[in-house]
Task: inverse folding
């Protein structure tokens, strides 16, 4: 056993877990830790706001499957990161949040930055603890790091009082962290039951969700679908779960999804749901589709027992790892003990109209996206903010070929895309990383661009400038007779701002030169910003029950369209 201080112990734990990065903002409580990290190969990526560090750690964790360290000052550093930690939780991203705190003697006495970070993060992490003794840091770190990477993956939080960070403890330098094996296998009988249901259906469909949209799941999923030869669609935001060039992949359902995928799902007589909670937002009634019709013969396979059968009436709920289900199903099919009779249903969906309606009412904005869809390289990682313009990129048909789609999921966050694109570029350096956002979103998160410039991470930002919060303005156009309240924006010169920060700035005001402007963006080897002037023409808003609807007014005059 070696006597070391707690900060030294933390660095040894980072090294034992082969961590390459630390993300965050260095506080006075972590001065000793920072000085020790100075002599290691672990790269520190500092941001100008804790939220941006959280999103970078989230995305690197998603793409590598390895929990990333988010280093936070106690107090306001923790509260500033709440949005990012919540997004990681919603998207099952492995993350280890490490914060300092008031000393063990002064905690709870209204000390400097004396906020109970453990209680604040308890609801949005898998586990949140405060270490009260130096000899328990090793135990807690190992327990939390393992917990972050076991399904369902997610963020964990450890708060260490400032005085404990400097205390001595003992550590066995020879002991390494054991590998975590978590399989959660289904039974052979269960898999055969599901395969029998597929074999006896005439119009079976796969609905693919977030639990298999990971490096472990995508390869077996592709093989599974090729053997079944049945159509597949994805839940909202998981457009990249399967190679979109596959003839069986019809696209995503939900907001700005594939009309063909929605129609095929509605017509199905058996739906196998792989790794999705089937949440209400995924089933938003876009194009007027009513998913209440798909209540027969739904089999939901998920690792989440809380949401199994919660949002839809299902025939069968199976709580297991969907990736392990797929692997076992492939073995059963290959054993030739099972006849899928797939000749019954190979092409039933091909007669369904594949023509997608125009997104916008006019021609200009449609033309902008037509050019973007054509000019963005196939091998790209795409990060999207929530917003009427940026989310149109969900219509891109090249997801899953080489790159990934990265969103905040049902968090619906504006302010995610720049940090997300930085994380994607750090995790997969040889793949171009694009961030799509509106003008309001950029001005909210532009300090994140400073991190890309400071650490020379060549992300590519595409900003749709219509001087509006577009989703809200779309509702005001569609339902409130163009009475604009809080939706118009007065922006600074965005290209000038980007250039002043040190990025390459490109302004696209002419549709005739847009292709050339995108080529300039694509060829840049430094952080670059392309601002595209857009018309005030918006996609049809989702009129779901929890959004905007007509209500009775008894006092004030209605102005509905």
Result:
């Amino acid at each position: 056993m070696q006597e070391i201080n707690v900060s030294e112990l933390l660095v040894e734990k980072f090294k034992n877990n082969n961590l390459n990065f630390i993300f965050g903002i260095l506080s006075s409580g972590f001065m000793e830790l920072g000085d020790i990290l100075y002599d290691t190969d672990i790269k520190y990526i500092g941001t100008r706001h804790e939220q941006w560090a959280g999103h970078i750690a989230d995305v690197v964790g998603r793409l590598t499957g390895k929990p990333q360290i988010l280093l936070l000052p106690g107090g306001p550093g923790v509260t500033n990161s709440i949005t990012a930690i919540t997004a990681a939780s919603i998207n099952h991203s492995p993350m280890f949040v490490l914060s300092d705190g008031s000393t063990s003697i002064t905690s709870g006495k209204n000390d400097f930055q004396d906020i109970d970070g453990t209680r604040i993060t308890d609801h949005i992490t898998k586990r949140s603890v405060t270490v009260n003794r130096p000899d328990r840091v090793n135990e807690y770190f190992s327990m939390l790091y393992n917990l972050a990477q076991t399904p369902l993956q997610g963020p964990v939080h450890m708060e260490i009082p400032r005085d404990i960070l400097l205390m001595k403890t003992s550590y066995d330098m020879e002991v390494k962290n054991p590998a975590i094996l978590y399989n959660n296998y289904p039974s052979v009988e269960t898999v055969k039951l599901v395969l029998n249901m597929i074999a006896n259906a005439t119009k079976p469909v796969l609905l693919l969700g977030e639990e298999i949209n990971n490096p472990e799941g995508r390869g077996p999923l592709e093989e599974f679908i090729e053997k079944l030869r049945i159509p597949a669609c994805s839940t909202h935001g998981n457009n990249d779960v399967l190679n979109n060039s596959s003839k069986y992949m019809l696209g995503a359902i939900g907001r700005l999804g594939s009309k063909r995928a929605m129609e095929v799902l509605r017509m199905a007589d058996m739906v196998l749901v792989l790794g999705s909670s089937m949440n209400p937002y995924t089933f938003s009634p876009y194009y007027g589709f009513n998913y209440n019709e798909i209540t027969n013969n739904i089999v939901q396979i998920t690792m989440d027992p809380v949401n199994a059968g919660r949002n839809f009436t299902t025939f069968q709920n199976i709580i297991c790892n969907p990736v392990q289900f797929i692997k076992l199903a492939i073995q059963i099919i290959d054993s030739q003990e099972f006849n899928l009779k797939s000749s019954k249903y190979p092409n039933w969906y091909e007669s369904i109209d594949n023509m997608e309606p125009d997104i916008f009412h006019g021609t200009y904005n449609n033309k902008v996206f037509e050019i973007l869809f054509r000019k963005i390289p196939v091998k790209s990682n795409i990060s999207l903010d929530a917003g009427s313009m940026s989310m149109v990129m969900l219509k891109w048909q090249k997801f899953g070929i080489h790159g990934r789609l990265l969103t905040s999921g049902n968090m619906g966050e504006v302010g995610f895309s720049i940090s997300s694109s930085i994380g994607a570029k750090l995790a997969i350096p040889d793949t171009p990383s694009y961030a799509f956002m509106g003008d309001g979103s950029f001005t909210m998160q532009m300090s994140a661009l400073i991190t890309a410039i400071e650490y020379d991470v060549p992300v590519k930002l595409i900003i749709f400038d219509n001087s509006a919060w577009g989703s809200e303005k779309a509702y005001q156009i569609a339902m409130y007779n163009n009475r604009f309240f809080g939706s118009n924006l007065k922006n600074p010169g965005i290209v000038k701002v980007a250039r002043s920060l040190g990025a390459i700035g490109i302004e696209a005001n002419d549709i005739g030169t847009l292709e050339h402007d995108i080529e300039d963006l694509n060829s840049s080897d430094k952080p670059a910003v392309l601002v595209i002037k857009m018309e005030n023409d918006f996609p049809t808003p989702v009129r779901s029950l929890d959004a905007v609807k007509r209500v009775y007014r008894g006092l004030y005059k209605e102005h509905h369209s």
Residues 50-64 form the longest helix (15 residues). The CA atoms of residues 275 and 302 lie 5 Å apart.
